[in-house]
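Quick check before the chapter quiz. The format below is the same one you will see on the exam, so make sure you can read both the input and the output lines.
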Amino acid sequence: MRPEGEMLEVILRFAQEDDTILAVTMNGSRANGECVTDEYSDYDIQYLVRDIRPYIRDRSWIGHFGDVLILQEPDDWFSHPYDIDSQENYAFLVQFQDGNRIDFTFVNVRNLERFNAEEEPRRVLLCKDNGLRIRETLHAGAYWVKRPSKGEFDDAVNEFLWLSLYVLKGIHRQELSYAKSFLDHNEIDLLYTMVSWKIGCAHRFSVSAGKAYKNVTRYLTDGETERLGRVYSDGNFPRVYDSLLIAIDLFEEYALQVADALGYPLDRKQIESIKKYVRDRRPANA
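Here is the expected output.
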């Protein structure tokens, strides 16, 4: 795998040799001083140009960066085809055979004001046009956990408790995909949302939970991390049920901590009613 220095050299050389590219910027984890990067970290690169269309019509330029393993164009799906004359930003997400990944975004300079309004960290790697005023920021505040309003907090609690009954129903019906879908994709996401708010409260909302909450365990004890891991069940219905109980207990604990820290009331009677309802309906084989 080519190291970062070599990759940045290739990225910049392409722009230097192409007169139609006016500037190069980088955002994402490699532009964020608070992130720990490794060989799997993407290069999120933006090329600022006056006309995006040539790069879409002829994709041979991608070969400059290496042998492609797989490529994705999220701005041009079957369900929402891209208007090539729109000059809206266009992205190529490219995984190369050597293990490196570059997410290229071509930005028309007519969209510079909107581009500059983005809050995430950005480094300017190259600017050929002194007239371009590209906003550079190395501050990671855009990624920090946001303080929830009372309404957001109440909705999260209500949704978690409501959807726990969907998991329970799927278990009793022996509908594995149904039960696992609501547990893994809804309940656990809401649990991690509450965990991230707890961490935010403890750190004055100046930390990042990371994409898919990947950073939260940095701020938890080993015991908390172990308990969180137990909410992930396999295809065994009794273990899905046990994971649901663990998730409810953890959610209650973290919701209490967040409510206390933010001064929000929490209907503990409602939570206890749901816990009792679920416990009273333990499946026969669990």
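If your answer matched, good. The chain has eight helices and six strands.
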